[in-house]
Specification:
- There is one protein chain.
- With 440 residues, the chain is mainly β.
- Among the domains are: 66 residues, no CATH class; 142 residues, Ribonuclease Inhibitor (Leucine-rich repeat, LRR (right-handed beta-alpha superhelix), Alpha-Beta Horseshoe).
- Helix content is 0%, strand content 24%.
- The strands form eleven sheets. A ten-stranded mixed β-sheet has the order 9-10-12-14-16-18-20-22-23-24, with no helix packed on it. Strands 3-4-5-6 form a four-stranded antiparallel β-sheet, with no helix packed on it. Strands 31-33-35-36 form a four-stranded parallel β-sheet, with no helix packed on it.
- A hairpin with a 6-residue loop joins strand 5 and strand 6.
- It is elongated.
- The chain starts with a strand and ends with a strand.
């Protein structure tokens, strides 16, 4: 059969399950006689014809089930290399044809770097036997809407589909890694299912994409840095128990609201959820550190539950969380970093007795904070630690404190009661609070 000038046999009769969305599953039966595929709706059992170039949208005429996300592929064979393809030692290194619909020859074992980059390609069939999708292979293919990867594919290299028009992609069990920037800036990409064979999701893999949902199955061990950066339409994420590491800025500026984090997680990277739409989070037991900026600038964050495995809250961890009214800090915490709760909506706070130093700007401009009891054991209060806490009325300083920076309580205009050791009666930190101070 001739398709756009290419002489190719249609797939040899075979059957594989092709899942289309959460409800409609079809079985593709390929025929030599016509450029059509038989599809069976797994919901109602109706058999109907499907144009192989239109597999990205399937509508069952009987029950009306429709889906636009494929999840698996048929297996097929085509004739050897056409003059439109350059294959070197099994690797497809170049396509010199002008067709927008391409059947890749079965002799290819991989698709090399840049082969279709920024081309006008709008449909492609990849044969079983292809093991890798190379760097920038389909990057910038604005007209490419959907693609199904055969079960032979093991790796999707960096930038493979970045900046493309892809809306859905079927990733088969067998793929072990999603490369850096593989689907970055795919603004039309919507729903993704990753098979259990995937072990790593590379840095920026889906950053700035339009994905609305992603199913990450048991097997993935790490979420790369910036993996879902600025995925504003992504509302939910459930990470499997195999995940150990969540990279820096992994969900920064995303639409994530209530992430489900596994108890297996050991590391939440710097700024992992910063600027996201997160509303509540349960930190897994086993996490020992709330990393720098991990939840900073999360304006909707209202509830944080921390386990007693946490020993440190790093710099900027919760700064600008204006909806965070209260938080229970475990007694195991020994350090709270610079600006950790800067400009939060906190109304009250209990600092653990295990904390020795209240860092610079730790509670700077927490305008709703009304009272603060600093536990016995704290030794120093850093510069601007409570500066501009407009609602602060009561301050209690224990005997264990040996130094208080000059601006620690500056611009706390409503303070009406201070209880502090007499040794601080002439301290610059209280120069404007002497009239309301009681020295003990």
């Amino acid at each position: 059969m001739h398709v756009n000038g290419l002489s190719q046999d249609l797939p040899v009769a075979s059957a594989q399950n092709l899942a289309l969305g959460p409800c409609c599953r079809i079985k593709m039966l390929f025929e030599r006689e016509a450029m059509l595929m038989k599809a069976k709706c797994y919901k109602c059992g109706t058999v109907f014809d499907v144009d192989p170039w239109e597999y990205t949208s399937v509508l069952c005429w009987n029950c009306g089930e429709e889906s636009d996300s494929a999840q698996a592929i048929n297996e097929f064979e085509v004739k050897p290399q056409s003059d439109d393809f350059i294959i070197d030692d099994g690797m497809l290194t170049a396509y010199i044809g002008d067709s927008r619909k391409v059947l890749i020859p079965s002799g290819a074992s991989g698709i090399g770097a840049n082969v279709f980059r920024e081309s006008e390609l709008n449909a492609v069939v990849i044969p079983n036997g292809v093991a890798s999708i190379g760097f920038y292979a389909f990057s910038g293919c604005k007209n490419l809407r959907g693609i199904v990867l055969p079960s032979s594919v093991k790796t999707i290299e960096a930038y493979a589909f970045s900046h493309s028009g892809i809306q859905n992609i079927a990733i088969q069990d067998g793929v072990t890694s999603i490369g850096e920037f593989a689907f970055s800036n795919c603004s039309e990409l919507r729903d993704i299912v990753l098979p259990s064979s995937v072990k790593t999701i590379g840095a920026c893999a889906f950053s700035n994409s339009g994905i609305r949902s992603i199913l990450i199955q048991e097997g993935v061990a790490s979420i790369g840095d910036y993996a879902f950066l600025s995925c504003s339409d992504l509302r939910e994420i459930v990470l499997p128990s195999s995940v150990k590491t969540i990279g820096a800025c992994a969900f920064s500026n995303s639409g994530i609201q209530k992430p489900v984090l596994p108890s297996s997680a050991k590391t939440i990277g710097d700024s992992a959820f910063s600027g996201s739409s997160i509303q509540s989070v349960v930190i897994p037991k086993g996490i020992s550190e709330i990393s720098a900026g991990a939840f900073s600038v999360c304006f909707n964050l209202e509830c944080v539950i921390m386990p007693d495995s946490v020993i440190s809250i790093e710099d900027d961890a919760f700064q600008y969380c204006t909806s965070l009214k209260t938080i229970i800090i475990p007694q195991t915490v020994t350090s709270i970093g610079i600006n950790a709760f800067k400009k939060c909506g906190l109304e009250s706070i209990d600092i653990p007795a295990s904390v020795k130093d209240i860092s610079i700007g730790c509670f700077f401009e927490c305008k709703s904070l009304r009272s603060i009891v600093i536990p016995d054991g704290v030794e120093s209060i850093g510069d601007m630690a409570f500066q501009a806490c407009d609602s602060l009325r009561n301050i209690v300083i224990p005997n264990s404190v040996t130094s208080i920076s000059e601006d620690a309580f500056s611009d706390c205009r409503l303070v009406s009661r201070v209880i502090a050791p007499e040794k601080f009666c002439d301290d610059p930190a209280f120069v404007n609070l002497k009239d309301v101070a009681t020295w003990v």
